[in-house]
Amino acid sequence: MRAPQLALTGLFALACATACGTDQPVRASAAPPSSFPALDVETVMAGLDHPWDVVTAPDGTLLTGERSGRFVALRPGGQPTDVAADQTDLFASGETGLMSIALANDFDSSRKLLTCQGFQSGDTKDVRVQTWTVDDAWTNLTRTGTLIDGFPINSGRHGGCRLLPMDDGTMYIGVGDSARPTVPQDLGSLGGKVLRIDANTGRPAAGNPFPDSPIFTVGHRNVQGLALRPGTESIFAVEQGSSRDDEVNLLRSGGNYGWKPDRNPDRYDESVPMTDPERVPGAIGAVWSSGPSTIATAGGTFVDGDAWGDWNGALAVGVLKGQELLLLRLSDDGNSVADEVSPTELDGTVGRIRSVAAQPDGSLLLTTDNGSDDKVLRVTPRAS
């Protein structure tokens, strides 16, 4: 399904006084503070090629997927094995291919999972959310349908896509802008947006800000991560900047996050600010920004567990260009960052980090994105 043409409205004129974060980011110190726990880093899977995501099933099986379309499962006590899947219509080019993976809320009974991936068949080329079922032995994935389609695609640049299922049956989807200048501010396009849909039907979720549209927020460049803060209803988007200003944004229904690279509508102008209140009235400022240079932020999740000490509840962000794991300790209201740290155990030691997934035991699962012997890693805080 595709979004109808709608005009931009005054819903974007949200008060920056309550939404904007700090003007200057707090940059990480050379060494973590003494209160930060030591981390154990274990290789869980190796020999992968650009794994974009990893999920954990209720039976303990880990499933990851390579951007080229390959699925790999690791069952408890077993060895990594390929999971067969028909990917003959996969569009894998540049930054696009098999990307985010999510398990349905009723996976135990339905064996249903979802992927966000590039698609090409005949004259149709887009990014879409596909639904699958997997057999009990984790040997075969069967495509069962398309939940939502029509996310714009060009060469494959800025085709990022992240899925975040919610307990209420809705799902948020972060979508890249396909490196096209008018897309992020166009309510007739699903690109450069965060969407909110019914996870069973793909229809716009009840209570969305724009009638009959799946669009929840606009004005994004390339959303790479979505994370729900535990104990709250606050959802944070991790977004890649242009020549500066990677961002973490607190999502607000109907909010415009200010990316408008169309000073010349025929040219994708990356010299404009990531958040541009002069050209986008009411644009919402970032909670955190990388500042004058980018580090290429990717997936994000919130750490959970007493072993994290003072950093329990911090937002953990995978970093590609900067080759680190970044932890951000947010203010209680989520509008600013009190402190940040990059643990030495992952500072340049494993290369580019794409996805970060919190686990029930307090550990994190990471995927690296180096293109040569990529890994799924388990990172566990060492209790003091």
UniProtKB/TrEMBL annotation:
PROSITE patterns: PROKAR_LIPOPROTEIN. Residues 48-372 form the Glucose/Sorbosone dehydrogenase domain. Keywords: Signal. Pfam families: GSDH (PF07995). Residues 1-21 form the signal peptide. It comes from Antrihabitans spumae. This is PQQ-dependent sugar dehydrogenase. The lineage of its organism: Bacteria, Bacillati, Actinomycetota, Actinomycetes, Mycobacteriales.
